[in-house]
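Data availability (excerpt). The following record was deposited with the supplementary files.
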Amino acid sequence: MVGMRRSLVTVVVAAVVAPLALSACGDNNKRSASWVGAGASGAPSVGPSGPAQGPVTEAGAVPISLSVTPAVGKKDVPVSAELGLKVSGGKVTTVTLTDGDGKAVPGKLRTDGSAWVPGKTLKTKETYAASVVATSESGLTKTVTTKFTTMGAPGRKTGTGLYLFDDKTYGVAMPVVVEFSPGIKKADRAAVQKRMFVDTTPAQPGVWSWTSSGTQAYYRGPKFWAAGTTLAVRIAVGGLPTGGGRYGDRDRSATAKIGRSFEMKVDNATKKMTVVENGKTVRTVPVSLGKASTPSSSGVMVVMDKMAQTVFDTRAELGPQEGYRIDIQYAQRLTWSGQYIHSAPWSVGSQGRRNVSHGCVNVSPANARWLFSKTLVGDPITVKGTSDKLAYGNGWTAWNVSWAEFLKGSALPVPESLKSLK
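Predicted structure:
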């Protein structure tokens, strides 16, 4: 259930080749291609199979074998289709794919050369023509063409979401988070994972990992991202069969930046938060964590959302006796279950001394304001020493497990080179 970095290399082409739900505090419960590439996993390319039967031209006796899928005349092809390639005696040097109007479709080769991936979802009920040229070391060529027609719009779809947005800057612990509704079953995750691509600049290793329900997948490396990293993500599942007769609703993509390093470390033993910016301790903040009946979770969390002002209302959840409704300032969400860092003027006397919250990290108004002005979504906060352990999937918990454990979540085989990283 983890997904590996995959790579796409540009080929010389003849013709351009979900909002965060607000719940109340205290419920405990150089460029790296991660684009497509079946090479690392050994998995076959996604898409229909069958050799193309189009015309072949050879310059002399060329010892090149080349076949292309979808086959000539293939109908009802998913709009997520790739051009499957099998070649020996040479390398694919040119790929051209055009729609029914003769307009070129951009795309890239998988690094292992097993397929050419269109740069966007194909149109429904459209006939496409492809021409692929392979070239031998001596410069001789072989060309294969094919023509196929895509399927109509599917009746049942899998909803998707990407918690990453263009031109935004995130903290160093920001995992790439993809959401699926309904969740993807284990048998279908490998095909989906093969279509989830991440490029990092500068180059850094990374892997996909699924939650047990299949509703989310995270992408991260063995360490937090380097400050200044660019993440370019494409979740190319539009029209992709996702199991149970469903197809992905659409492609999603984003290019975002990773900002400076900013880490918050909370120790229940001292009731203090140590704030480290770019490797230097810049502030120590007294805190009050969850009381015995509603303990804060220990684990590595990330800031998921920031609200300068909001309302916590637990009356429906906890009942009129235990529930409460209160205005909150400078709230930063850490878990889906409702744990936040936030301003708590009512507990200032307890901060640094004892735990009185309903599970949140209480800080003074001044410290809450300062933290709010400094943090980014994706900044890490580590809480240790409480009686409750953070549940995997309760928030963006990709960093709350070891690298070895994280790799177990991949739906594709993980290369040995990645397994050995620390």
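Summary of structural features: The chain has three domains: 56-150, 155-256+403-419, 262-390.
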